[in-house]
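As a next step, the fold was encoded as tokens, giving this record:
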Amino acid sequence: MTVALVGLGSNAGERQELLQKALAVLAREVCLECCSPLYQTQPWGLPAEVPWFLNAVVRVRTPYSAEELWALCTQLESFFGRRRSGVPDPVRPLDLDVLLYGELIVRAEHLCIPHPRLHQRRFVLQPAADIAPEMRHPLLGKTLAELLQECADPAWVRLYAQPPGECLHALP
């Protein structure tokens, strides 16, 4: 089984409830080892009128390949109402990204691991460093804690809530 980090976000509807429901479904497929607190975050690279996101990161242990984990994430996004039309939609009921998958490096048309902008985005580095500060970025060779310390992203990232209930129940 491989340890992976999955980023979760929502900026539509009942954001916290959507994230909790998505975690409950994810927990049926993979072992949730740890969940970060929820952060309210300024939309990255989107117009100012776009609703703010709630973001978290979970550390999972999975029997799935990186490709299978990514497919599971996209299925969950669709199930919870995300529609992909080829044009990025700034309002997302659920946004899931495979950020890291062990030390694997994947560069494919539809999947890049590590996530190509992981090291540039405070909204994902903060929760990732909360739960896996010593995990290394396989291309940059730095820990998530080091990448967070070096991150120049000025976007607001504010603590919103402790880990969602499903994460608390999933932990041993």
About this structure: The domain at 2-170 is CATH 3.30.70.560 (Alpha-Beta Plaits). The mean pLDDT is 89.
